[in-house]
Structures are given as C-alpha cells and as structure tokens.
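Q: How would the structure tokens look for this protein?
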Amino acid sequence: MQTVIPAPSPAILPVYRNPAGFPVRRVYCVGRNYAAHAVEMGHDPDRDPPFFFQKNPDNLDPSGEFPYPPLTRDVHHEVELAVMLKSGGADIASEAALGHVYGFAAALDMTRRDLQAEAKKAGRPWEAGKAFEHSAPIGPIVPAGDCGFLNAGRIALSVNGDLRQEGDLNQMIWKVPEIIAKLSELFHLAAGDVILTGTPAGVGPVERGDVLEASISGLPGLTVTVV
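A: Here is the predicted structure in token form.
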C-alpha cells in the first residue's frame, strides 16, 4: 500500500560478524529482576510475578554514543542482557521458550531517574523516564548457536574505568525462559522482538564525557560515550 507520508525506516541492529542485520519489531523490558537491585530501589525482592514496560524500537542505538537527554538532571545507567527472538506466539511454555531465541547482546537501559520518580509518585506511566531517544545503547548481537543460551556468567558495567555494577546472570529472579513464557501471556510475541532482562545492583548517574563499558560473559563488550 502507498503511504501518505514517507514510511519511517525500520530499526535494524548489527549482528556480530554478519553483514545482515536484525530487524526490530518491539522492545520489552523486565523491571527489578535482580534481588539486590530491587532492594536498592526500595522494594521487596520476593519472587512476585514479573512486570514489564516498553521502549521503542528506534530507542535501540548501536552507535556507541549516548546524547545526554533534555529535561533531566539525573540520568542513570543500567546494564542488561538483551534477548532477540526469531519466532514467537502466545502462551509459550517455558520449556519451549529458548527455541524462539535468535541471540543475545549487551545493552544499557538508560533512565531519566528524576522523571521516572515523578511518574511513580503520581501513579503515571514511565515512558518519559524510559523510552526517550537513544535510551537503549546496544552491542552487536551474537546468535545463540555461537554463544549458547546464556543462563550464567558475569555482567558488569564500569564508568571511566571504575566498576559500578557487577553480578551474574544466574542471579536473575526470573530466568530467560520464564520471562518469555510470562511475557507471551500478555502479548503475542513475534520474530524481531527484543527483551531487556533487568539490571544488577549499582545503578547510578552519568555525566557528559563519561565512558561506559558494559560486559557480559560470552558477548562482545559495549563501550558508550555520554555526549
């Protein structure tokens, strides 16, 4: 069908050592999926059902630069494992969930923490704090066939060489198969969906000029400069 205005360009992410890219359909994020992070944010880390929020496909940014956003004085880093789906469906069983995974990448869930806090206090949605431009820096995707299904391994973030966040993927309250299963109860998942799986403790502010280095065992590192 012809369009009345130019159609927007799709978000396409780089795949490690592959000239073809990964087209993004939707971006889902899991909130408070590491117990220590739940505690530092003032919440009980009991294994309550997971909750989700969304970012926009074009928030995913592989450029290596993070422009400091407007209308905030408190932008925080959150290092996360990103999961890319090659297929989907509704009501996916956790035992079958990994069969829908294309690959993994290191990512950051950058957050305008002051705007998020204001939204929480007013009982309003989080989009202004979470789904702004360039809010999800991301590294190259590694297919699961090359790196395996990542259910354990170090996840860490340094800022200007100083370690800020460190944990292990096995500390996730809800593991990747469970996340996919629970998410598919709420949404019909499909190829091109990206899931950010939560962050370990140690989130904190960034400033212009900071250099963020994210690492997850088995994946290429991600270096991002705040500009």
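The chain has a mean pLDDT of 95.

Residues 176-186 form the longest helix (11 residues).

Upvote if useful.
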